Amino acid sequence: MRGNPDSMTLLRPKDAAEAVRLFAKSPQALPLAGGTDLMVLWNAGLLNRRTVLDLSRLREWTKISRKPGSLLLGSLVTHATLRDHPFVKTRFPLLSAACAEIGGVAIQNRGTIGGNLGNASPAGDTFPALAVYEAHLHLIGPDGRRLVPLLDFFAGVKKTTIGPAELIEAVELPDLRKRPARQFFRKVGTRAASALSKTVAAGLLWLDGGGRVEELRFALGSMATTVRRLKAAEQYVWGKPLDAATVDQACALLAEDVSPIDDVRSTAAYRLRVSQNMLRAFLTGRTQ
Fold it and tell me: What is the DSSP letter of 112?
């Protein structure tokens, strides 16, 4: 390892108020949650002479709690906790499924929901699930607290709209108005664990008594600079029966909301075709 701890400054706030004060005084500090990304930088020697804001003492941020009409996830809740939490598995199963696909068990035990969001990777496995659940982020900073819709939080590859000295305090998931007729999560990668997604998808579908679409929510990761909801397809299928023509057009419209690229993990053409196949399987009920 090339990390030199003697060259670093470590800040260890005991509560949220102190964390904000210290961060405001050292705005270039790197927030440390689970450390699954920062330790890679440490190993490469890229944290030498840097300041790190260690959030591990903020125990209130490790809790999951109910609010009227929503579930509040502290930003330091681990992927393993979300994977196994009975209420999350029952009410928000796509998030639980996504957390079970993040890296291996060691990563799931250390990595946190807030750290995952702050890292803002286009391939974040939890992001499509959070997008279809229409999550909001609770941010805290020198000017107080604010609530930001998930899709307004991301600004590009590894970029967010978080302000100076702001921290992610919690993630809020509003209760679904009723149980979906279908739910879907799938990660396509080179292997099951410790691999970044070629594409990752989450979907919710509500149907009326006649089989027409009341609402569709479908989101994709690794298909653009940030997670994307398929707005064109979602709007097109509203009120329609899911016959062959409707499904074909919805899959064609998927391309309007994404911009996949060629990279070392996959090609744009492969990503687009696989994502269309996942949407088709979901809409036709052939996801098993």
Answer: B
Residues 85 and 37 grouped into a single domain: no
Two tokens, residue 196: 């970044």
Same domain, 270 and 188: yes
Find, among 208, 201, 202, 207, the residue nearest to 274 by Cα. Answer: 201
Which tokens belong to 275?
């994502």
Buried b (16+ CB within 10 A) or exposed e, 143-164: eeeeebebbebbeeeeebebee
Residue where a domain terminates, one of 115, 139, 174: 174
Residues 6+ apart with CB under 8 A from 251: 233, 276, 279, 280, 283
Instruction: Report helix angle 268-284 to 244-253, nearest 10.
Output: 150
End-to-end Cα, the chain, rounded Å: 44
Domain total of the chain: 3
Q: What range defines the domain where residue 67 resides?
A: 62-174
Q: CA 92 to CA 176: how far, in whole Å? A: 9
Task: Give percent of the chain with pLDDT exceeding 70.
Answer: 97
37 and 106 fall within a common domain: no
pLDDT value, residue 103: 86
Instruction: Write the burial class of residue 238 (CB in 10 Å: 0-12 exposed, 13-18 middle, 19+ buried).
Output: exposed
Same domain for 10 and 45, yes or no, is yes
Tokens of 51: 């300041």
Based on the domain organization, do 168 and 113 belong to the same domain?
yes
Query: Would you state the structure tokens that stand for residue 13, as one six-digit string?
Result: 């706030």
pLDDT tens per residue across span 248-266: 999 999 999 999 988 878 8
Residue numbers in the chain where pLDDT is lower than 70: 1, 191-195, 288
